[in-house]
Automatic annotation (TrEMBL):
Protein name: Purine nucleoside phosphorylase
Main enzyme class: transferase
Cellular component GO terms, alphabetical: cytoplasm
Region Disordered, residue ranges: 1-29
Annotated positions binding a purine D-ribonucleoside: E237, N279
Boundaries of every Nucleoside phosphorylase domain copy: 57-315
Keyword Cell wall biogenesis/degradation attributed: no
Pathway: Purine metabolism; purine nucleoside salvage
Pfam families tied to this protein: PNP_UDP_1
One Gene Ontology MF term: guanosine phosphorylase activity
Keywords of this entry: Glycosyltransferase, Transferase
Enzyme Commission number(s): 2.4.2.1
Amino acid sequence: MSPTNASYENGSKVFTPKNTLPEVETENGNGHKRYSYEMLVETAQFLLSRTSTRPVIGIICGSGMGSYWNEGSLAESIVEAERIPYEEIPNFPVSTVEGHHGKMVFGTLGEVPVVAMQGRFHYYEGYPLWKCCLPVRVMKLLGVKTLIATNAAGGLNPRYKIGDLMIVKDHINMMGFAGNNPLHGPNDERFGPRFPPMSKAYDLEFRKIAKQVAKELNIENIVREGVYTCLGGPNFETVAELNMLKMVGVDAVGMSTVHEVITARHCDLKVFGLSLITNECITSYEQDNEANHEEVLDVGRMRQDVLRKYVARLVEEFGREEQRT
Ligand SMILES: O=P(O)(O)O[C@@H]1C[C@H](O)[C@@H](CO)O1
Ligand code: HPA
């Protein structure tokens, strides 16, 4: 089905956008389906009916931040938390990663109303990118103004150490280079424009605040700022791939976030990105060690107290900044 009504004027085809996109649309030739605006409104309305929280900040908890465990995680420290499992949410995909929590957690952090995704959807699980990003659009419809996207990533910058935190300054959309983009397909203007800019993807003010907060918390020695890229996964990268990414200016490599950020910027959410460096990227054939998921989770647990305190303070500060602007 076409998202436009086509008619002919003086022999030329004229397209008039329809008011709504069809409920489920077969994407250009690749067989993927997509959700309509109305389905996402239904999802948002369901969530709003299940909680009295009206979140202004949305947080995506990455692998290092309690998407695999609850104890001591940021999601656990949300006050007056209401937890809604993904299985109960209409139109929501169900996380297939073993051990992932799969819950939307509503409540407050430092008196700022928030919603946290405990468990995200990854491309390697088999979801098309637009489906991985569905919760971001739902957050927008819930009234969220700012997205904090966190992830676990391999450190490619040789100065980075395992356990460092990287404020994401920018990203390189490697999957987008191959034409795989969450905005691929018909555009719905109610979310945003057909051709959204990405040159200010990661909010400058938030990045400044994050550096200031790192100083206050005395963790500035482990907080870096750099460029993140997402590959499709699930395999970790080859030595040649990592050396190529290093050459083009990538500091940290992961399997998420970029498409979420593109979707968030498209619908005008402000974005802050944070990577936990969980492993060293292997850039030489002489190195014995290999990347592995257990190490990613171990480092996540090791750093979770710091991450929780840091992100909780950032939420307070971003909430304040939100009120100022
Ligand atoms: O959800 P994130 O991006 O934090 O998870 C990363 C990427 C893979 O899911 C996993 C690899 O260990 O960690
Ligand atoms: O080294 C990595 N590569 C890709 N994704 C990752 N997620 C954690 N570490 C890595």
